[in-house]
Amino acid sequence: MAISASLSAHHVFVLISLERLFSSFYPAYFERHSSRALAFALAIVFGGVSWLYSIACMTNYFSSIAEEDFVPIFNARNESNTQPFQDLMIVTTASNAFSLIMLSIDLYLNFIRQPADNSTLAVSYQRSENRRILLTILPIEFSD
């Protein structure tokens, strides 16, 4: 369960990073059209799907649940768990690589690149909010 929760939390942070990336490219549009309900629904879907996928990998794609003496302990040394474990590690590695690339782009767009001077108050506010959120998730992304 801890692996599932960790993977789900990581994917929610990827979603937050995607949101910040979109708001970096289109700050005025994002300021007018952002939706908390959509963000919450996407976070629930991302977390649920990644949790369900990791549980599927840990139970040998749900075939272990049908056994009467099933004990939900994930052991990578078990021969029947080898392929699902490798699939889970590939997905986790790809997700981490994608997350680091996205975080690098976010950092470049919000901290290194010089914005245009003729920005409105809404755009300036959106940029400062991006910086604040990125500074919050930066240590979490690096440690994840």
UniProtKB/TrEMBL annotation:
Q: Source species, please? A: Pristionchus mayeri
Q: Does the keyword Transmembrane apply?
A: yes
Where, by residue number, does the polypeptide cross the bilayer? 37-62, 88-109
**This chain belongs to which protein, by name?**
G protein-coupled receptor
Q: Which UniProt keywords apply?
A: Membrane, Transmembrane, Transmembrane helix
On whether Calcium is a keyword of this UniProt record, the answer is no
